[in-house]
Amino acid sequence: MVVPLLKLQDLIEEIRRAKTQAQEREVIQKECAHIRASFRDGDPLQRHRQLAKLLYVHMLGYPAHFGQMECLKLIASPRFTDKRVGYLGAMLLLDERHDAHLLITNSIKNDLSQGIQPVQGLALCTLSTMGSAEMCRDLATEVEKLLLQPSPYVRKKAIPTAVHMIRKVPELSDIFLPPCAKLLHERHHGILLGTITLIMELCERNPAALRHFRKVVPQLVQILRMLVTTGYSTEHSISGVSDPFLQVQILRLLRILGRNHEESSETMNDLLAQVATNTDTSRNAGNAVLFETVLTIMDIRSAAGLRVLAVNILGRFLLNSDKNIRYVALTSLLRLVQSDHNAVQRHRPTVVECLRETDASLSRRALELSLALVNSSNVRAMTQELQAFLESSPLDLRADCASGILLAAERFAPTKRWHIDTILHVLITAGAHVRDDAVANLTQLIGGAQELHAYSVCRLYSALAEDISQQPLVQVAAWCIGEYGDLLLEGSCEEVEPLQVEEEEVLALLEKVLQSQMSLPATRGYALTALMKLSTRLRGDNNRIRQVVSIYGSCLDVELQQRAVEYNTLFRKYDHMRAAILEKMPLVERGGPQVDEEAKESKEAVQVSKAAAPVPTEPQASKLLDLLDLLDDTPEDAQHPPPLDPSPGGTLVHLLDLPCALPPPAPIPNLKVFEREGVQLNLSFTRPPGSPALLLVTVTTTNSSEGDVTHFICQAAVPKSFQLQLQAPSGNTVPAWGGLPITQLFRILNPNKAPLRLKLRLTYNHLGQSVQEIFEVNNLPVETWQ
Fold first, then answer.
1. What is the pTM of this model?
2. Structural domains in the chain?
3. pLDDT (tens digit, 9 = 90+) per residue, 245-257?
């Protein structure tokens, strides 16, 4: 009994009637069996119908590879109905991974040379979809001829095919240079749009083509001017803008041609000003043209006034009700803030208003731009706005906002007191979200400002009395109370409200910190040390402090227990030395990059002068004695000791009764393992003398670009025969323009002395993009593992 074959429409209806996936699979399996049987019978009249059903099955996600050869048979058929389904099947079922796609090269070549426009269109569409590099090389000449065919239909199909060929085989670009110059004279907008796209591909992949097409910049300017000045056209106008797609594409090509070229940029300056001032911004099509105009102005060597106009356009975008347009404006202004800082500064109030947006992506972009706008002249006002935003910001933005405020305060602080107040406000508002180095920076800042010791300890004591949940704040307050508790009890600070603080209140507050469940082990360590230091600064009895310290001598936390035991020993055995050991920390001067650079230069100069000085010849024993001259401050006219007897009994080695020391190992060279857009990762290596199997790797991340690197995370992996321990990094933000780098220590134990291989994974945000890089480091110096 012959089963009647289903039509495509009947198959679709039957599949849709299936109530479960099992029923659907049953219908498709049964129909695929019928399709296979029909292919084996070889009925030419039914082949295209069966393949059409198979293509529908393929679109549903079921295997249809057995129809590949039927596609080739239909393409070779002289009937148009067969060719249409055959080419469609080739585009869906064939690609470069299947060798069968090479079998249709001759069929496509014959169809391209037939002169039948619908067949040529089918062949060109297939070639532009799945043409491999070999097919492109074989058929490039035929496509070049079709680019100049009189039929607009064929030319529209041939241009995307040429674009595909250039992407697959860039060396074919020379073939398509002459036709492009002729196609620019077309009046058909579809052909003109395709030609612009083809020229862009040629310019991006071939420097010679870029120089060639810079000659047609006046022609492109004329085409765009006609589009801008032409009236309404029902065929091409969209929302009152004449063919915005063609305008955008021309602007993109002008951006490529004018980049780093003075003459081309000057030719298009007047036109860009005309487009920027005459485009209607009430509709989205006009905004798209304006945005491309702004990008073109910023990429070429445009006049200063034109750049200001572009920034003002972006400022108007910030006032638009469409959130997408505001996001685009914030992203573009963030790119321009380094090159056109003053022009972007004019829109600072509008940018600050965007901080209050409910959309998370908009507020994040506004925060990044606001932080980039901070400078020495507006640091007070901008910090005040950012602090207000920090109080109400979402949790996922608090870390970025707090880190940005701390960095801005460190770079542009007008006074030390303002700097301290700013950091305190951040710690009080979002202490749990600050960077890891915030505590160390603030303690160093307070320690170096002697005139602000009393003010700082009063402010921190008041903040600690109100809230002990913010751990960084508690740590700084405990440190400050321990160092300057005597100033707190004196109440000598006139710049804050007078505080009448008793000794018992201070001790009770520190005990509260020690007993709180919210306190981290590190925080308890700060509080315990503060109590110990107060034992030398308070006038009363120290019995209460001794009792508290003795309690923590049996604490489960090893670090806290060790501190308590050492402090108890100090009370019992070395009480006479306690005051000297626990005296105030000396004043610390914060060294900036300039100070470090000067110290480095002076050190190098000393080394050069020492190397240039003549070295007198001395006996070996005298040289050994000079090794012990650590102070190196002996006057020149001082008498040197007489040379020792070079006999074995008189050598320094015998005097010290020590074996002859080996020379120190040669330093391991540093290694640069990563560099992208100004972000650089360097590895430095150290082998501790007493542990030959241990390698210390210091990872230093620097940033010489114009944008900060945020949320930086470096992860590492080693082979199983190694042991790897990652220490906490110094931070997660690398400021722009060579700011303070991030350092992280890797401890690698290599007991088998096997060759070392590292696999690193970097994740960070940079220039508005999220970056993730995974790579292996196989070129480590031999000294790291031998």
1. 0.64
2. 450-582 (no CATH), 671-784 (2.60.40.1230)
3. 999 999 999 999 9
